[in-house]
Amino acid sequence: MLQGCLLFPLVLENRQHCAVDNKMDLIDFCPLSRCPRLRRLVLPAWNRVETVMIKAIDLWKDLESLTMPSIVNSPRLVQAIATNCRNFRELKIMGPFDIYFASSLATYLPTLKVLSLRCSKLYKDTLIFILDNLRCLDVLNISHCLLIQIPPPPAPGRIVRRLDKTILEKASRLRKFLTCMRDTCIMCQRTRNDEGLMRWYKYEKGLWKEDEVRSLAL
């Protein structure tokens, strides 16, 4: 038996490719009740993940790490994690991350230690909110993010290509603040071309598994 079902992320990765054709839910495929000591879960992309995940979280009392796509109703899932997973410490979001999601984390998971938003669309105000309100955060990864600043109307939003002094000062309390905003960076270019919602299927196989945070890389 594999302690903590360590191969579970691989099962889900393979499951992703047949979900569209077979139209089966995660809970139909995986014997969730046999993995009550699950510690790490990776869900790279799944349109129907929300309802199934909220039902399953009750079983995963030892869950510490989650990689998941952005979802519409984030408070429900985040609250379920906070209620059931006392050792939860790190989260990776693959997709747009807005103030609504950030507020959910601040409300229900204020002791979160590691957050990776790499290759995602991120608003400057949301980044500042994270730095101001997730006071227990040790590691924040915004490498290759499409960082957007929204000025007062009617001016349009603009891409932030360099972090200002305010953000750098707020981030100085972190043990690690991982960034990359170089115009010459291929991953930064891809995030911009995909408008902050990475089309991973267009790129090298397994590219989505990478992360500058070692504990989140596969």
TrEMBL record:
It comes from the Eukaryota. InterPro entries: LRR_dom_sf. Gene3D superfamilies: Ribonuclease Inhibitor. This is F-box/LRR-repeat protein.
